[in-house]
Amino acid sequence: MSLTVSPDLLRAAESGPVTDEEFIACVRESLPYAWQTVSRVAAELATSDVEFSDNVIAPPGDAERGQLLRAMASDAIRAGLEQHFGVKLAFQNCHRVAAFRTAAVDSDTYRRFVSARGQLLNQSPELRNC
Asked: What is the pTM of this model?
């Protein structure tokens, strides 16, 4: 299960649309490690002149790794995080979450990061099973 959904939020979703705030609160509470990681790279991007900010620290365990994988694999969760933080997220391996400014999506740097070559160059034996 990707998210821990309260009975109240589930009832609300069964009755109709839920607010972005309700959804993002559920993500924050359900996936705290993923939330912290995305929060950190988004804040680093917002407070610097770098082209992108990324997480290069492997998660401390499988539970945290799973949170990142679930957050990045779900279109709704990923889009909610991007909208909330005002960034475009990119993902490599089990932990390399990067935040780009939305205007940078067509940049050479972004295209290099999300390319097949970029993925191959970011591989190492330590990350093979992450």
From this structure: 0.88
